[in-house]
Amino acid sequence: MSNLGFRGSRGLILGFSGDNCASFHIAKALASHGSKIALTSRTSRLEELADSAKRAGSELHLGVDADDEASMRGAIEQLTSEWGALDFIVHSLVHVPSGVLARPLTELTKADFHSVVDIGVLSLIQICGMAAPLLRNSAAPRIVTLSSESSMLATPNYHVAGIGKAALESASRYLALELGSHKILCNVVSFSAMDSDGAANTIGKENIERTRSHLAKRSMTGLTCDWQHVVNGVLWMCSPMMQNITGQKIVIDGGYSASYF
Fold it and tell me: How many CB atoms within 10 Å of residue 258?
């Protein structure tokens, strides 16, 4: 892993929420390989998460509210001033209003649907547009978005979140098409259920534990997904070693989604 080419690279990771989230583990690994990392958190949580962002190895910790285009532009303006280029973006923004997944999908309100899709999907499209000039200043620009196989497989207690992830994956493919002429590669890393704070808050810790127990029994490897599996997949997708691969998705789930038994 020491030759992935991250020394001196600059990366933006969207959606930082503390020590027990994907962005923490990804940022820490990238920083350990010599990358400069900018993390974004909700503006209201910047002070609360400051120490956690430092533990993750971030050089910059920016306030971005994904439903506020002005705050996103402000972050890109600061990155333009500080760095002048971006080598990679990792998108891990997701939001599901409290209580939504406990109710039937047929009771979903328009406001809740827009909240999920605007924050989880439109934010990727907007940040790619805003950051495109910075990415074009990189010799190997990469965009990686994080997803779940619940985008493809109906999963209990996940309905609109899965719909949002399906839309996110589709958006990534169309961004790959649009940005490919600039040699900006855009891909998805999808992984099975993790015991993260976000998952626990969204669908409940007991549901996560039951799902992970089921996956351990049914995956081809007999293993559940852990943070190192996810981190290694994301690092490769962000690295200059990955070449001419775009509009794709890699799935980290021990082969569960490819098995019929």
Answer: 10
**Global confidence as pTM:** 0.92
- Residues paired with 91 in a beta bridge: 14, 145
* The one-letter amino acid at 144: V
Pair 65, 41: CB distance under 8 Å: no
Gap between the Cα atoms of 237 and 231, Å rounded: 10
- What is the per-residue pLDDT across 72-122, written as a single tens digit (0 to 9) for each? 999 999 999 999 999 999 999 999 999 999 999 999 999 999 999 999 999
The rounded distance, in Å, linking the Cα atoms of 96 and 2 is 37
Each residue's pLDDT tens digit, 140-181: 999 999 998 889 988 888 899 999 999 999 999 999 999 999
Closest CA to 86 of 144, 136, 135: 135
Secondary structure of residue 63 in the 3-state scheme? strand
Strands 36-41 and 88-91, bridge-based pairing: unpaired
Query: What angle is formed at CA 170 by the lines to CA 166 and CA 172, rounded to 5 degrees?
Result: 115
Q: What residues form DSSP beta bridges with 41?
A: 63
